[in-house]
Amino acid sequence: MTNKTVLITGASKGIGRATAELFGQHGYSLILNYYASEAQAIELSDKLKSFGCHVLPYKADVTDREQVEQMVAAGEKEFGGIDILVSNAGKAEQCLFTDITPEQWREMMAVSVDAAYYCCRSVLPSMIHRHQGKIILISSIWGMVGASCEVHYSTAKAAIIGMTKALAKELGPSNITVNCVAPGVIDTDMNSGLGADTRKALEAETPLGRIGSPLDVANSVLFLASEHADFITGQVLSPNGGLTII
Fold first, then answer.
1. What is the pLDDT of residue 184?
2. How buried is 67 (Cβ within 10 angstroms: 0-12 exposed, 13-18 middle, 19+ buried)?
3. Cα 156 from Cα 105, distance rounded (Å)
4. Is the dihedral of CA 240, 243, 245, 246 positive or negative?
5. Residue 244 domain-assigned (yes or no)
6. What's the structural domain count of the chain?
């Protein structure tokens, strides 16, 4: 059990929800960020509170710097500090590169890269002052190897990996670790549009023979947030069932 506080962005569904539930089971206080999925976020908050967790659900558009700063300030006021940031909010979209509009490109960068920048920038003053903290950024296997018809998504997720490695070097002297989780194909709403044939093909291509679950990813995040990972920083952990081994 712990008395630490974690801020999870995009916490209402999928990987974010599974991560919130797992952290709650291990005694963390939670700031649950959501934007569009208010009903799911409130339901999750009530569920965690019934288990005895201290929870602050907070609506904020993480592509907006002022809203992120207000959310972090509210979380620090509520809990006295934020020990762990899990920057998870994101979106997926498939289309040919030549069909990507400038608006689609900008939106993809905003929800992944800009959001991670705003969240890190907001939590760091307190972490640096306290000389402790853990930042975990959620990328994707496609940020490591690229995906056809997902160039903007792959580019944004690759940028997250670069941010992880550079920021880890900068923050190491402040005793702050920065790591990245890059999931493979996970059974979430984001991948709900995959057809049965596509799912079977992906399962066949995966050495472990299945598509991952949100809990598979959440376990990786919890490990990196724990004291067991105190000497790990600047790394990319990819729970992908062996789909890509590099």
1. 94
2. middle
3. 9
4. negative
5. no
6. 1
Token pair of 136 as six digits: 């975990």
For residue 242, being part of any structural domain is answered with: no
H/E element, 128:
helix 115-130
- 153 among known catalytic residues: yes
Residues with Cβ within 8 Å of 241's Cβ and at least 6 positions away in sequence, in order, are 184, 206, 207, 208, 209, 210, 211, 212
For 117, the token pair is: 């920048």
* Helix or strand (DSSP H, E) at 204: helix 196-205
The answer to whether 140 touches 88, Cβ cutoff 8 Å, is no
Residue 86 inside a domain? The answer is: yes
Residue 203 belongs to domain spanning: 5-237
Q: Which of 216, 213, 225 is nearest to 187 (CA)?
A: 213
230 by Cβ neighbours in 10 Å (0-12 / 13-18 / 19+) ranks as exposed
Catalytic residue among 34, 117, 118, 153: 153
243 occurs within a structural domain: no
List for the chain the helix, strand, coil content (%; round to 5): 50, 15, 35
Answer yes or no: is pLDDT of 88 > 90: yes
The CATH number given to whatever domain includes residue 191 is 3.40.50.720
The per-residue pLDDT for range 98-155, each reduced to its tens digit, is 999 999 999 999 999 999 999 999 999 999 999 999 999 999 999 999 999 999 999 9
